[in-house]
Specification:
The complex is a heterodimer. Chain A is built from five helices and five strands; from the N terminus they run ββαβββαααα. Chain A is α+β, with helices and mostly antiparallel strands. In chain B, helix 4 packs across helix 5. The chains are: A alpha+beta, B alpha+beta.
Chain lengths: ~150, ~725
């Protein structure tokens, strides 16, 4: 049994300690907002925040996050009131939406560390969007940063 | 309150799931509409096939098309809201069940493909909503005890004009549903919603993780399976493997096994570790990129063509040409690579088959289920979830059939998920192609001869081996070109390669536009003419085409001076009823790199029902075409496809994203599609810019196959 804290709540997880956090979140905790895209830390659809840092959860074993504070898209705000969520709606960012949980979490970690990112800072986000929403993501991050 | 609702069944299953699983198993299945909100919406009354009116006066639109990112739920809901005379805040939407009422009038089948949803539904859905509106007015007049002629529909109410007396649609829906539907109901002429950028109904659910995709489906008592196909195409399971420790079962599916476990993560890991003995037929070795290319070259030189279009005597004209181009263009197989891997959930019992799927065709899922279960269609339900991308892959039935078969074998509800490696290596790939263009102009730069030969596997031919007609999916974008050529012959030679091929966003246009628009540019440069002016000259008299071309040239500052080391390229395309022109500005920082700085794009799709969503589709189409042009390719070595994952199938990322500007040009023409037409022009526009910048012509896609490594970000 490994205890992790997700969105401020403690969970005693029964998954094998080597299970990727992605599957613990999706399968054991039912937090399906975090998506499976590649399973090899490339696409970023599984991005969550662990102790303030954006992390690809598909290659992070449960035992590595024991006792850590994890935030998923479900925990960003209770009512879509996070500035990024509001900006994402204002800019009509998502298309298929499958990458967007990971994108928003990557952007949330960025803003936490750098409240007023430049375009170059935003370019550090390596998450993949197949639908091509990058231009709107960039606009939404700037909008959220302005507050 | 623009939240969407899921089919009632899914909502109720979710509630049961919550009760069964306890607090830690709260599944985000209700798209932001909480159980309490759903209950507050009250009893719903259907009025016709597309509209449900709740007692709380919510208008739920049953959307026949699948939402895969194109915003179609919103676009079709706008058509309904327009005619029904309701406020946008009343409107919700959900996927319709399978049914003939939901067959796209353009095809006669319920299928989201071919950039056809708005084109197919624009008038039929408005007519359906107008019919419902008239029925509501009749019922409202009766309820208000007023002459029908004094009643109007406004803001979701029937009102007696000149008074405060009104009833909500919700109050009279049951009575309205009994009113005989009028024929020829009048359609609204002054639009309030059509042509406006209404906010998308699905977006709130896509910023908080609650949007439910197929891969998120959870049912009480369900099992979870991961698929493992034979790594070599054409191979089959030689022997059903023993169940590994930790698995519930291994199901033999013929060309694959399904490893069934207590959850998806475990099933995936066990499937990856499982050793399976495969039987590989000798013919699989023929599925090999080198062999396929050499056969294509042979067919390009000596194949017997089918003629798509012939006009005049181009060979004789070519012999007389002042400027000639003889160029061969090469295009690779491509993967769909939807970010949501293929998955499907099925629950099959003796007298019912229930399917939850990210599918572009719930109706085809019914046919698949009928074939596998023998059940009649009324015993088969399909719940279409959101699609994490469709791109032409998710109307195929392979993954649907697998879920049904595994559920049959396990006698339980089962979700089947393809690990990403399975998705890449078992695609229905965009066909490769070799295209040769022999063309020539007179001394004034007017094209006198155009001889075009496309060698490519046939998507339709693979699916209909007896087909003798020319494959119009292969020839689209090569024949009926808008350009005025004095003579022309357009040929297609079917390549017999057995690599499974399918419909990739923009299909044949994705191939032919690259060859046509590259060759047009080569001709312009050979004749010493500006590529934009050269295209204008060959579109003379075509006001609609010129308006789009001119708009893109203006938006892209075609004639303005450039930074040193920069160049512009242009391309034009007509696809899916829409006209698109793009101007790119690029630089080439090294010999093996292109930076695309800007893309200016003009589209004429007739009336844009939701301009912001047309814009979004053009942005997305451009990006999709851009990634493919730069790096996209799938190769086959003795039947084994590669790549296997995104690390070697590079896609454009934030730092490579050009600045894209879209202009919608409406010249009053008929409706065109938006989902696909943005894709075709971008590759040739980049190649054309590169030729102007460096003098080097890029005739092979992708431009940089050796740089397709995306690594770990």
């Amino acid at each position: 049994m490994i205890t992790i804290t997700v969105n401020g709540k403690k969970y005693d997880c029964t998954s094998d300690p080597t299970t990727p956090l992605l599957w613990v979140l999706r399968d054991e905790l039912g937090l399906t907002g975090t998506k499976y895209g590649c399973g090899i830390e490339v696409c970023g659809a599984c991005t969550v925040i662990v102790n303030g840092e954006a992390e690809r959860s598909c290659d992070l074993e449960l035992k590595e996050v024991a006792g850590r504070a994890i935030t998923t898209i479900e925990g960003l705000s209770p009512d879509r009131s996070h500035p990024l969520q509001k900006a994402w709606i204002d800019e009509q960012v998502p298309q298929c939406g499958y990458c967007q949980s990971g994108m928003i979490m990557a952007a949330a970690a960025l803003l936490k560390q750098n409240p007023h990112p430049t375009d170059a800072d935003i370019n550090e986000i390596t998450n993949v969007c197949v639908c091509g929403t990058y231009q709107r993501i960039r606009a939404a991050i700037h909008k959220a940063a302005k507050g | 309150m623009n939240d969407m609702t899921l089919p009632n069944e899914a909502v109720s299953l979710d509630r049961r799931g919550v009760l069964a699983g306890g607090a830690s198993l709260v599944i985000s299945f209700t798209l932001g509409l909480s159980g309490r909100e759903a209950a507050a919406a009250g009893v719903s009354t259907p009025i016709g096939a597309f509209i449900e009116v709740s007692s709380a006066n919510k208008i739920n639109v049953l959307v026949a098309s699948s939402e895969m990112g194109q915003g179609i739920m919103t676009g079709l809901a706008q058509l309904v809201a327009e005619e029904l005379m309701v406020d946008w805040s009343q409107v919700t939407a959900q996927h319709a069940p399978p049914g003939w009422a939901y067959a796209n009038p353009l095809f006669g089948i319920q299928l989201t493909a071919g950039s056809s949803s708005i084109r197919g539904w624009f008038t039929p859905l408005r007519t359906a909503a107008a019919t419902a509106r008239e029925m509501l007015i009749t019922a409202g007049a009766a309820a208000l005890n007023a002459p029908r002629s004094s009643c109007v529909a406004q803001h979701g109410r029937v009102r007696v004009t000149g008074t405060n007396r009104s009833v909500t649609y919700g109050q009279i829906a049951a009575a309205a549903a009994q009113v005989p539907p009028p024929s020829n109901p009048p359609l609204v002429s002054k639009f309030r919603f059509i042509g406006t950028s209404q906010p998308r109904l699905d977006i709130p659910s896509k910023v908080d993780g609650s949007a439910a995709y197929g891969i998120d489906v959870r049912l009480p008592g369900m099992l979870y399976a991961a698929i493992k196909h034979c790594p070599t195409l054409g191979g089959t399971v030689a022997k059903t493997p023993a169940k590994p420790a930790g698995a519930i079962a291994v199901v033999n599916l013929g060309d694959a096994v399904a490893v069934v476990a207590a959850n998806t993560g475990l099933a995936k890991r066990l499937s990856e570790e499982l050793n399976v003995q495969w039987s590989i037929p000798a013919s699989s070795a023929q599925l090999d990129s080198a062999l396929i290319m050499s056969k294509a070259q042979q067919l390009l030189a000596n194949g017997t063509p089918q003629i798509a279009e012939q006009n005049g005597a181009p060979d004789a004209e070519l012999a007389k040409a002042a400027h000639r181009v003889d160029a061969t263009y090469s295009l690779p197989y491509l993967a769909h690579a939807c970010l949501e891997p293929l998955n499907c959930t099925a629950s099959v019992t003796a007298n019912a088959c229930k399917i939850w799927a990210p599918t572009q065709s719930p109706m085809m899922c019914v046919f698949t289920a009928q074939g596998l279960t023998g059940l009649s269609p009324d015993k088969i339900t399909v719940n279409t979830t959101f699609l994490g991308g469709g791109l032409g892959r998710k109307f195929e039935q392979d993954y649907i059939a697998q879920a049904i078969k595994v559920s049959q074998a396990m006698k339980a509800p089962v979700k089947v998920t393809w690990p990403r490696e399975q998705d890449f290596t078992n695609d229905q790939y965009r066909p490769m192609a070799l295209v040769k263009v022999d063309a020539g102009t007179d001394s004034s730069g007017q094209i006198r001869a155009w001889i075009y030969r496309n060698v490519s596997p046939s998507i339709l031919g693979q699916r209909n081996p007896g087909m003798t007609d020319i494959d119009t999916q292969a020839t689209e974008g090569s024949d009926q070109l808008a350009y005025g050529f004095a003579t022309r012959r357009v040929e297609y030679v079917k390549h017999p390669a057995a690599v499974p091929v399918g419909f990739w966003r923009s299909v044949g246009h994705s191939i032919n536009c690259f060859a046509v628009e590259s060759a047009m540019d080569e001709l312009a440069l050979a004749a010493g003419q500006d590529p934009y002016a050269f295209r204008r000259k060959h579109l003379a008299g075509n006001a609609r085409a010129l308006a789009v071309l001119d708009a893109a040239a203006a938006l892209g500052n075609w004639s303005a001076s450039l930074l040193a080391g920069h160049a512009r390229g242009i391309a034009y395309s007509e696809a899916f009823g829409s006209l698109v022109a793009q101007v790119v500005e690029i630089s080439a920082p090294t010999a093996n790199a292109i930076t695309v700085h800007k893309v200016a794009c003009a589209i004429d799709c007739g009336m844009a029902v939701n301009p912001d969503q047309v814009t979004a589709q053009m942005e997305g189409g451009i990006l999709h075409g851009l990634s493919a042009a730069m790096w996209g390719h799938v190769t086959f070595s003795r039947g084994v496809p590669s790549p296997r994952n995104f690390d070697r199938y590079r896609l454009t990322r934030m730092r490579e994203m050009p600045i894209i500007n879209i202009m919608i040009v409406n010249t009053g023409g008929p409706l065109g599609g938006a989902g696909e037409p943005g894709v075709p022009p971008i590759a040739p526009a980049i190649a054309n810019a590169y030729a102007r910048l460096t003098g080097k012509r890029l005739r092979t896609l992708p431009f940089f196959p050796a740089q397709s490594y995306m690594g770990d970000g």
